[in-house]
Amino acid sequence: MNWFMNLEIKNKVIILFSTLAVAIFVSLYVTYDNLTTLENNQKDIEDRFIKPNNEIVTIRRSLIDYRLRYISAITLPDSAKLENIGKEFNSHIIETDNAILTKMKSLGVSLRYKENFDGLEASYKLYKEEAEKDIAALYEKKLDGLAFPRNFVESQYGSAISSYESMLMVLDELDFIMKRDLTALTRRSSQDLFLNYLLFYILAGMVIIVLVVLSVQINLIISRPLKQLTSLADDIAGGNLKVETPVIERNDEIGRLYKSFDGMLDSLKEVGKLSEKMASGDLSSNMVPKSENDVLVKSLNMMVGNLGIIINDIKESTDILSSSTSQIFSATTKLAVNANETATAISETTTTVEQVKKTSEISNKKSREVSAAAQRAAEISDKGIKATEENLAAMNKISGQMNTIAGSIVKLTEQSRAIGEIIATVNDLAEQSNLLAVNAAIEAARAGEQGKIFVVIAQEIKNLSEQSKQATSQVKNVLNDIQNAINLTALAAEQGEKIVRSGMELSKEAEESILMLAGTINTFTDVAMQTSVSSQEQFIGMDQIAIAMDNIKQASAHNASTSRELEQSARDLQTISSKLKDSISIFNIS
Description:
Layout: H1 2-5, H2 9-74, H3 82-110, H4 114-141, H5 150-154, H6 161-237, H7 253-279, H8 295-372, H9 377-446, H10 452-519, H11 524-585
Helix pairs in contact: 2-3, 2-6, 3-4, 4-6, 6-7, 8-9, 8-11, 9-10, 10-11
């Protein structure tokens, strides 16, 4: 059967249906032959039995009629009509004789019993001669009152009776022989009919068996392999590439189809393995195209190459982003430290201002007491000198702190500008990462189903770049707030410096006044009044300084809070950069 299985399906179908056509043709031929045989048997029965039997019946009737006319002629009682007997008998005899002889000749030609009909014809001729002699003898005698002589009666109406009975015996014998042959032929026809029916049923059964065998063969060689192949195709369409194509030792279209399907399955398995490697980050593998028209493998290799280029660009951008975020984090850390130091210095300055304020208040009180207690002038003068010296030292300290604050503010301004430049660089990197993510998504979309995972990676990169942009935007907003706070701090510091200068001038004047007070006791009252006024002004100035320092303290606290927020944003940006770097590090491009 291997030669049959290796034939093309067209030749298989031709052979199978040719076999069916031959079986049907044989059945039709045998049926036609049997019908022809039955028709010939029917015609044979009609020619050999039915027609001859009708002829015999006609002859028998003619003979009986002849016999009756003969008896009527010889037994007629009316002697007056004897003259016409011969004429009527002879006239009728001619018609009957012609009919009987014609039928006998017809039977002698159509039947196979010629010797029987030869004897019948001889008996009929003898009968006719004897009948004619009897009629002639009766006509010649013409007996009075008698229609026939007595010897005619004694001889049973004439001497021709023996010939007549002999003809009847021949006819009876022929009738018996024909019935016997007809029975045999009928029995044989019935047997032939039974055999024909049996043969017809056998051939019909054979045709049905051939049809069943053809159906089974078609199912085995065509339908079943195609169903198996359809089931495998459904499994592959469902994503199952672990199926195996059955081995079929055939060289027809089905065998070639199975071989082509097996090759296609192998290619899909290779594509699946390459996709798994790509999904795990291994971009160093490629597939060898099966032919120049292998668009899938070529596109997949091109996608792997383009993705490797994109990943390299993203890695470089990620390194730059990581370096920038490190610089930003370092700068924000320094900024936070400086902001804390500034806040500490301002807090100390505020404490000093409060102390100076209290001192001014005490000086004011003492000045008022000088006018009421001149006797304590010397002591108050000493205390005034001492207080003035302390006030001058405090003012010098405040001036130094204000200079430190001014330097920190200048340095903080420069660092804020540097952070702004770094943020611009990070923003540019985020834009480049977003553009690379869009390109990667486009390349992955071209790859179809195998590029879905790269669409996810490209989307993750895009999300990370968007987060980077948001983080840099937040950092930029924080830097703007810090810059505003720095500007406010600088303004407050400038005002504080002016107030400190004014306080220092007032302290110097107070010192001079106290020295003059010590030298000029006589004018102590006037000087005390002037000192009281100066102390009042100093108290007002110190109150203004305290308010300004409180504003500076609040601005410094806000600056420190902003620095901490900037530091947290930088830390978040660094974390995002690390995640992006970790996400890309899974890819092996070499």
